[in-house]
Amino acid sequence: MSVSTTGPSRADLVADTALALLAERGMRGLTHRAVDETAGLPQGSTSNLARTRQALLELAVRRLADREARVLALHELPDPRSGTDSLASVLALATHRALTDNRALTLARYELALEATRRPELRAYFDATGARFRDRLTALVTGMGSTDPARHTLSLIAWADGLMFSCVAGSFGSGTPSLEEVRAGLRELLAGMLGD
User: Do residues 47 and 105 make contact, with C-beta atoms less than 8 angstroms apart?
Assistant: First the structure.
């Protein structure tokens, strides 16, 4: 029985390399040839897996969603009955991971998000992959007694996204808040929303 060279490990390698190139070189630095060269693959390997630029971007978005799911650790989200401190701690840990050990992944996400504003077909794909976390968070704040779960979810995500953008690509790029500082900000936000 022969082993396929275009199986999941090849796709993951191509997608991970695409994400690394996006973080390092930006959207213009992402080409099929650059992925082949950086990944050490024979020329044409990436094109065989993702024929078009759109297909390569979709592959990167899929892999981004898989990797961010591990960073966000959806399985770590608390039971709604555990209270706002528990939710603040879990969300702070996920946000802090994105700012530290996964900084390049976060930067790649912003590159893809900006590209999605110019490519409606990528926007739909990008938004669909992000729904996994958004839907879980909405269910969680609903279970915690939110009077407006959709608005509160938007506020939480916007707060975390704003912090990550400011610290990874914005005017606070030279400093990273501590885990406790992130947790304190989330506690304040959640207390205002949920009254805990």
Answer: no
Which residue's structure tokens are 């929303």?
193
Helices then strands, each counted (H, E), the chain: 9, 0
Please choose, from the candidates 17, 24, 141, the residue with its C-alpha nearest in 3D space to the C-alpha of residue 88. Answer: 141
* DSSP state for residue 4 in the 8-state scheme: P
What is the distance between the alpha carbons of residues 187 and 90, in angstroms, rounded to a whole number? Answer: 11
Q: What is the number of other CB atoms lying within 10 angstroms of the CB of residue 60?
A: 27
Give pLDDT tens digits for 70-108: 887 667 777 777 788 888 888 999 999 999 999 999 999
CA distance 148 to 71: 27
Backbone angles phi, psi at 118, to 5 degrees: -105, -10
Cα–Cα dist 142/48, whole Å: 45
Single pTM value for the model: 0.83
pLDDT in tens, 19-59: 999 999 999 999 999 999 999 999 999 999 999 999 999 99
| Residue 64, C-beta contacts closer than 8 angstroms, at least 6 positions apart | 15, 19, 105, 108, 109, 112, 129
Give every CB contact of residue 47 below 8 A, 6+ residues apart in sequence: 32
